[in-house]
Design goal:
The chain is α+β, with helices and mostly antiparallel strands. It is built from five helices and seven strands, in the order ββββαααβαβαβ. The protein has a five-stranded mixed beta sheet. It is globular and about 50 Å long. The chain starts with a strand and ends with a strand. It holds the Pfam family YgbB. This is 2-C-methyl-D-erythritol 2,4-cyclodiphosphate synthase. It is an enzyme of class 4 (lyase).
């Protein structure tokens, strides 16, 4: 019997002035960025939490606590590399990733393919196994009023023989 595991991840960060906006490892030119201990890449954080959940590794707060100065300003793609190494060590392979960015602005459509390529490269899978999409919330809630961004991710892992 094939050992498959599904994981779901969710992350949220406040938007603020004076920070870069990094999503899926892509720096998006914009006047606001996400507030966080690392680069605050909300999309990559949701993917990492989904992977951690599927492989029963806890969550990114456990693996990379914001109280640890080693992670201050670190690229979330580097943190994803570390999660990918833990997956490999545990005998897991990524089957697919489906992620949704929730933000009123900016529009990220032109950068989606680069985000997918970044995530796929770090995870060691083909780009057709990673899907990134974005939606607004029609000006409702903290994402709709522009005070923050959120992301959800769902992943499927398979235990390697």
């Amino acid at each position: 019997m094939t050992d498959l595991r599904i994981g779901h991840g969710y992350d949220v960060h406040r938007l603020t002035e004076g920070r870069r906006l990094v999503l899926g490892g892509v720096e998006i030119p914009w006047d606001l960025g996400l507030l966080g201990h690392s680069d605050a890449d909300v999309l990559t954080h949701a993917v990492m939490d989904a992977l951690c959940g599927a492989a029963k590794l806890g969550d990114i707060g456990k693996l990379f606590p914001d109280s640890d100065p080693r992670y201050a300003g670190i690229s979330s793609l580097e943190l994803l590399r570390q999660v990918a190494a833990l997956l490999k060590k545990g005998g897991w392979a990524v089957v697919n990733v489906d992620a949704t960015l929730i933000a009123q602005a900016p529009k990220v459509g032109p950068c989606r393919r680069e985000m997918e390529a970044n995530l796929a490269a770090v995870l060691g899978v083909e780009t057709n196994r990673v899907n990134v999409k974005a939606t607004t919330e029609e000006h409702l809630g903290f994402t709709g009023d522009g005070s923050g961004m959120a992301a959800h991710a769902v992943v499927l892992l398979e235990r390697l023989p």
